[in-house]
Predict the 3D structure of the following.
Amino acid sequence: MAEFTQEQLLELVNTSQVAAGNPRVRQVAQRVVSDLFRAIDDLDVSPDEFWAGVNWLARLGASGQMGLITAGLGFDRLLDIREDEADAKAGRAAGTPRAIEGPLYIAGAPLSEREVRVDEAPQRGEVLVMEGRVLDTDGRPVAGALVDVWHANEKGRYSHFDPDQKDFALRRKIRTGADGSYRFRSFVPPGYAIPPNSPTSELFSALGRHGNRPAHIHFLVAAEGQRTLTTQVNIPGDTFLDDDFAFATRDGLVVTLEPNTAPAGYESLDVREPFTRVRFDFVMQKASSDDEARPAARMERVAA
Ligand code: MBD
Ligand code: FE
């Protein structure tokens, strides 16, 4: 009764049940456990190897780096590819390409109407003004869209995850005007590198991989009746543009940096010197359900 082969044990683990539970959770858990049992046997994983893996997962969870690992092992991009495929199949592939949210979004950034300075004086790096409109797939402006923007500081670090930065530093929300327009001032950010001496860097060095992302700016764009758009734009010329550790860069999202020597018209953003201008319109798909239009980031969506 209590002596099992591997197969009998797996069957017991997967079928034991005293209540209905959640059928979908049962289905996914059964599959994952089955695949892991098989991997342990196929690869002859030793007890020390197994417990080293569990120890690493425990430290990973405690470090708050789960989202770095999902990105670095390609899961975040996989979900985007699958959504793109579903859109193509449904004949609704359109608008600005989606790009992964990443693990560094924080909800609740300060809201401004139409424009904002995202950074704070003193200026760090090249002055950047990014501007454009939020449009629907028919080219009509989306008024009152909420454009959440966040990016790394001059050291490649994100506020909230960095004790040296103020709350919501380099995180802002902009509501588009009647013509769908938005604009903001900041600086051209550098790339990002995973923290050294961390569970993530431990795995990446064991895999012989680097943990760099090319310079980028994140956006979460939400508007009534439109499908919430999560995307990023990339700064051209970065060494890691085609070698992103998170596999997240995409055609159509590498912006053009335009040198602009005439700051007239940008006084409200305190721009008084030559600056780098980026023009970019966000094009949103029409939402096919209220759920698709929820103005929520990935963890807000699934929070109990
Ligand atoms: C980032 O800045 C990022 O955007 C992602 C996806 C993963 C790690 C750091
Ligand atoms: Fe990022």
Observations:
- The chain is about 25% helix and 20% strand.
- The mean pLDDT is 97.
- The helical segments are 6-15, 23-42, 47-63, 66-72, 75-89, 199-206, 298-302.
- The two ends are 40 Å apart (CA to CA).
